[in-house]
Design brief:
The complex is a heterodimer of chains A (367) and B (246). By secondary structure, chain A is an all-alpha fold. Among the domains of chain A are: 46 residues, no CATH class; 169 residues, Orthogonal Bundle (MetI-like fold). Helix content of chain A is 68%, strand content 0%. Chain A has 15 helices and no strands. Chain B has 246 residues and is α/β, with parallel strands linked by helices. Chain B has a 6-stranded mixed beta sheet with strand order 6-7-8-3-9-10, with helices on both faces. In chain B, strands 2-1-4-5 form a 4-stranded antiparallel beta sheet, with helices on one face. In chain B, strand 1 and strand 2 form a beta hairpin. In chain B, helix 3 packs across helix 4, helix 3 packs parallel to helix 5 and helix 4 crosses helix 5. Chain B starts with a strand and ends with a helix. The relative contact order of chain B is 0.17. Classes of the chains: A mainly alpha (367), B alpha/beta (246). At the A-B interface, helix 11 and helix 12 of A face helix 2, strand 6, helix 3 and helix 5 of B.
Chain lengths: 367, 246
């Protein structure tokens, strides 16, 4: 009775569209904002809070605000006093750099931003770009320092504001990354001395706060120098930041190296590649790609940590703003000034994370 | 050592900690000889061939490859590795490089071949394994069988004197085993010296000069394919053959 029937499919195979459950904005709202009573409650609560916060803020920031008045006029108005930024922008950005020479750091920053922007595209990564960077660095140094070609010399003690922040950040991050990779490789080394040194370095540096490193570089370190020898304060702070950031990057890179399958090492070695070639051509390109997200987190936090140099009396962007706010005319308008500073930091960090996402996408062709 | 011998293993022992994984291995491979090694898992087959290019280190005895003894000397190890090709069970292609870049990496960096010439050699071998049209793709875009053929071509680009195969078909879908075996059979016809760890009996019968049976880290039997399969002498091999043939 119940004999199984042999079955051979004769229907042609054709794809069927998925069922359409919800379309249009109403469907979207229903599905995402009011899918159940709890979500509906949260949606209503959120809308209420937005209604309470956003309109007053907009009124404060844009309607009742003063854009380019003096301090007294600001005090009479109810809204934000953006004049505090507008009237003091040159001091906030350039610090104590001689007033009539401030086009020089501006030019240096424009060159830096231009080079960074041009370097975004990986198609531009050629030898000519390296030359461009070298030329750019020389010009930037010339602009900041001066002393030749009829430019007045400006002591580095007078550098400050945004150029100083960018200087510390860009060179700190570009130097810390390769150093971190070397430390990670050292920690994986089969040679006991190199391994022990790397571990000791990483654990020691990670075990102390950045502030203490900065203090050491500015106060303790000069004590060990022979008499008459001085090293620029900015350089010392820069080195401390590089050493600090490198230790963190090393640990992230080590995670990436440990995530690499053993077969990749074996395949590279069985082709006869030596250690350096194996690492450079096969292992690191893959491992560094895996760790792009945590690396960028470290770089972003290192960028923000440049503001800690205030404690060794370097006038970075944050410090110039603070000093400006001690002017009696502008006292009490710190909110507006700090919002402006926050925006600058936000823009820089946004570009960093944006670039990292783009890099990840571009490198992901292989999967 | 005779000029005809490309590999000589004399009284080779290896331990993993306390575990004795290779016990007194003696094996001589002549130029042009093709050897298939089979045996149960954990018998030391893979370990043995991995010792030949020192992906594993042996602790006692002597291994001589192409007239050079394998010692801790890194220069010798790198030299031997350029002469010995290796194909892995899991292909181990480099996923961040295109197929063509996978093939030219060794010639360009180890053999110092100019890029244009290396690419020409690479395309030659890709055609040989019938996959030249995929040269610009990445390994992740290829099927398992195609990847393994690329891996074979990658080794061949180094113009090795010996090819080692470590279970080259056991990670493949059944439909793809044949395309890889066909490539290996062609290679055998051209006279390549091959040592193959595999349970593909058809392959062993058609190309091997000798078939070895290993268990407990020892070579228990070594014979011509016909005698090996039709007339196994060692008790353990008789059991093994009855198991795999049902």
């Amino acid at each position: 009775m119940n004999q199984p029937h042999p079955h051979v499919s004769t229907q042609p195979v054709s794809a069927v569209r998925p069922p359409v459950t919800s379309v249009g904005p109403i469907g979207w709202i229903k599905q995402n904002l009011f899918s159940n009573w709890f979500n509906s409650l949260l949606t209503i609560l959120t809308l209420y809070l937005l209604w309470k916060i956003v309109p007053p803020f907009l009124r404060w920031a844009f309607v009742d605000s003063r854009w380019y008045s003096d301090g007294a006029a600001c005090r009479e108005a109810d809204g934000a006093c953006w004049s505090v930024v507008g009237r003091n922008i040159r001091f906030m950005i350039f610090g104590f750099f001689p007033h009539d020479q401030q086009w020089r750091p501006l030019l240096a920053m424009l060159i830096l931003v231009g080079l960074l922007f041009y370097s975004r595209n990986r198609k531009h990564w050629k030898k000519s770009l390296a030359y461009a960077w070298f030329a750019g660095l020389v010009i930037m140094g010339l602009m900041m320092q001066g002393g030749i070609f009829g430019l007045t010399e400006v002591e580095s003690t007078q550098w400050g504001g945004l150029p100083l922040t960018l200087l510390l950040a860009v060179f700190g991050l570009t130097a810390a990354h390769p150093l971190g990779v070397l430390l990670a490789l050292g920690r994986q080394s089969r040679m006991p001395a190199i391994k022990a040194l790397s571990i000791a370095y990483i654990e020691l540096i990670r075990g102390v706060p950045l502030i203490s490193l900065l203090f050491m570089s500015s106060i303790v370190f000069p004590l060990f120098l022979p008499e008459g020898v001085t090293i620029n304060k900015i350089v010392r702070a820069q080195v401390a930041m590089i050493l600090f950031t490198a230790a963190y990057i090393a640990e992230v890179v080590r995670g990436g190296l440990q995530g690499m399958p053993k077969g990749q090492y074996e395949a590279a070695e069985s082709l006869g590649l030596n250690y350096i070639q194996t690492m450079r051509l096969v292992i690191l390109p893959q491992a560094l790609k895996i760790v792009i997200p945590p690396t960028v987190s470290i770089l972003i936090s290192a960028f923000k940590d440049t503001s800690l140099v205030v404690i060794i009396a370097l006038y970075d962007l944050l410090k110039t703003t603070q000093s400006m706010l001690t002017d009696p005319q502008w006292m009490g308008f710190s909110t507006e000034a700090y919002i402006f500073i926050a925006l600058i930091y936000l823009i820089c960090c946004f570009f960093m994370s944006n670039y990292s996402r783009r890099l990840e996408r571009e490198l992901n062709v292989s999967r | 050592m005779s000029q005809d011998n490309i590999i000589e293993m004399q009284n080779v022992h290896k331990w993993y900690g306390e575990l004795h994984v290779l016990r007194d291995i003696n094996l001589t491979v002549k130029k042009g000889e093709r050897i298939v090694i089979c045996g149960p898992s954990g018998s030391g087959k893979s370990t043995m061939i991995r010792c030949i290019n020192r992906l594993e280190e042996h602790q006692r005895g002597k291994i001589i490859v192409d007239g050079i003894e394998l010692t801790a000397d890194l220069k010798n190890i790198e030299k031997i590795r350029t002469e010995v090709g290796m194909v892995f069970q899991h292909f181990n292609l480099f996923p961040h490089l295109t197929i063509l870049e996978n093939l030219t990496l060794g010639p360009i960096w180890v053999r110092k071949t100019p890029r244009a010439e290396a690419e020409e050699i690479a395309m030659h071998y890709l055609e040989k394994v019938h996959i030249a049209d995929q040269a610009r793709k990445y390994p992740g875009q290829l099927s398992g069988g195609q990847q393994q053929r690329v891996a074979i071509a990658r080794s061949l680009c180094m113009k090795p004197k010996v090819m080692l195969f470590d279970e080259p078909t056991s990670a493949l879908d059944p439909e793809m085993v044949k395309e890889v075996l066909d490539v290996m059979i062609n290679l055998a016809r051209e006279g390549m010296t091959m040592i193959v760890v595999s349970h593909e009996m058809g392959f062993a019968r058609s190309v091997a000069h000798r078939v070895l049976f290993m268990d407990y880290g020892r070579i228990l039997e070594s014979n011509t394919p016909n005698e090996f399969f039709e007339n196994p002498r060692h008790e353990r091999l008789q059991l093994f053959i009855s198991q795999i043939l049902h």
